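Z., the sequence and structure:
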Amino acid sequence: MRAKVVDASILAAWCFREPKATEALAILCDSELHAPPLLAYELTNIARRKALTYPDKATLVMEALRTALVLPVYWDEVDHVVVMQLALDTGLTTYDASYLYVARTIGAELVTFDEQLAKVSRKVR
């Protein structure tokens, strides 16, 4: 299995059945998933926004979140000082730089639907 660092855009697309869900599933299949612990917070915040926007679907959103949070993901800690420097060097937010940090640290591909993050990831490998 190939290691991949997955960000919230990919996992949210799949678990919340967004338009790119099929593409996200193809990216996730047969992969050893890694992420900074930040991913759980981001998914929870996405779920909150969806539940507020679609209150009649709040229960489904909660179930989707539960499913996403029990996926076999290796939670890789980050060095926050290094992440800050990486963010300053690349123009990314510290949140996005956390995913990039993990990818660089473990030598894995970073998978994301975020165009800016993907572009920077390809440049600084």
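The longest strand covers residues 2-6. DSSP finds seven helices and four strands in the chain.

Let me know what you think.
H.
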